[in-house]
Design brief:
This protein has about 140 residues and is mostly helical. The protein is built from 6 helices and 3 strands, in the order βααββαααα. About 10% of the residues are buried. The model has no long low-confidence stretch (mean pLDDT about 90).
Length: about 140
C-alpha cells in the first residue's frame, strides 16, 4: 500500500496502532505519506492528516500515537502473563508435533542415508523447514 498510494489518494486506517509498530514509526509514515500528497484518516481516533498540518495536529498525532503504543504494550504484557499462567496449570502446550516419534526416527535414518530432503518432506507431508528442524534437533 505504501508504494502503491499516489498523490491525491486517501489512506483510511482503522486505528493508529494498525499502521505503525511504535510512535517513531507512526510519525515517519505519516510524514512520508503527507509529503507525497497522500491524505491519512484514522477512524478510531477521528483524525485526518494532510500536508498542511498545524502544530496542534502534530501534537495530537504524538499524543494519540503514544497512547496507542502504550495500549499495545499493555495488551502484549497481559498476553504473556496469561500464557505463563496457562503453562503453569498445563493448559498451554503449544502446537501439536507434525510427526510421531517413529516417523522422526525413520526420517532421520533416511536423511542420513542420503535421500533427497525435498522428496522426504513431500512423503511425510511436512515443509522442508520442518524437516530441517527435526534434523537439527538430532544434531544438537
Amino acid at each position: 500500500m505504501l508504494s502503491f498510494a499516489r498523490e491525491g489518494d486517501t489512506v483510511v486506517v482503522h486505528s493508529m496502532d494498525r499502521l505503525a509498530r511504535n510512535l517513531d514509526d507512526l510519525r515517519r509514515l505519516v510524514q512520508q505519506l503527507t509529503k507525497r500528497g497522500i491524505r491519512i484518516e484514522f477512524v478510531k481516533e477521528c483524525l485526518t492528516f494532510t500536508g498542511e498540518d498545524s502544530p496542534m495536529a502534530n501534537l495530537l498525532l504524538s499524543v494519540m500515537g503514544a497512547f496507542a503504543e502504550f495500549e499495545r504494550a499493555l495488551i502484549r504484557e497481559r498476553q504473556r502473563e496469561g500464557i505463563a499462567l496457562a503453562k503453569q496449570r498445563g493448559a498451554y502446550r503449544g502446537r501439536k508435533k507434525a510427526l510421531a516419534a517413529g516417523q522422526v526416527v525413520e526420517l532421520r535414518r533416511r536423511a542420513g542415508a542420503g535421500e533427497q530432503k525435498a522428496s522426504l518432506a513431500r512423503e511425510f507431508k511436512i515443509s522442508r523447514e520442518t524437516l530441517y528442524q527435526y534434523l537439527k534437533v538430532e544434531a544438537a
